[in-house]
Amino acid sequence: MKWISDLIDLIFPRTCVVCGELLSPQEKDICINCLSTLPKIEKIHLDEIEKSFWGKVEIERATSFMYYHKNSPYNNLIHRLKYKNSPDTGDRLAFLAAKEIAESGFFDDIDAIVPLPLSKRKMRQRGYNQCDYIAKGLSRATGIPVIKNAVKRLKSNETQTHKSRDERWQNVEGIFALSDATLLEGKHILLIDDILTTGATLASCAKSIQEGCQCKISIFTLAYTYNGI
Ligand SMILES: [Zn+2]
Hints:
The chain has a four-stranded parallel β-sheet. The protein is globular. The chain folds into two domains: 1-37, no CATH class; 38-224, Rossmann fold, CATH 3.40.50. Helix 9 links the parallel strand 5 (188-196) and strand 6. The chain has nine helices and six strands. By secondary structure, it is of the alpha/beta class. Helix 5 (87-101) runs parallel beside helix 7 (130-142). Zinc ion (ZN) is lined by residues 16, 18-19, 21, 30-31, 33-34.
């Protein structure tokens, strides 16, 4: 059915979310030129990412794929995933990320991928959980299964942006609950989210999981807010 997608492209031209140029039929979300200069996380900041969890929760390792710099046009990729009804962007980006990160052995002893759950209200508003699609892309690339129903979110924490660092940590206490410990017991799980800023939300979820079952936890996010907010 290639002619149908060609026709749709003709009527609704697809453009690169970064530079605005027209995309070829093979390109999705981003053109090949912009993809070649995607701001991937440099080695020096990988340590910083792991350190954001030190003293908060015990994790095995943590990584992220690209920077989320203030005003960077590359943030449009994340905006598209979260706010523009384009969940497949998360799948594609995570697939790409996993293919690159896998070379370092990051996924080697991971048993399951666990997307950070959304609250019911947020799920109703957005219609999908963007983390489910990031999980899907990671799973497609690595073959590691996804477990969705082990953890639930009791409330959302959308007011985070206006809070100080300390307030953010307090604000996320007890917002997650383990709903089925047997699904995670004894496993090494990869907990995932779209953007890592302070790590407070992910740490809170990891804590709730560790309080209810014995498992190892590592962390992956698509993007990392370089300077924090
Ligand atoms: Zn472009």
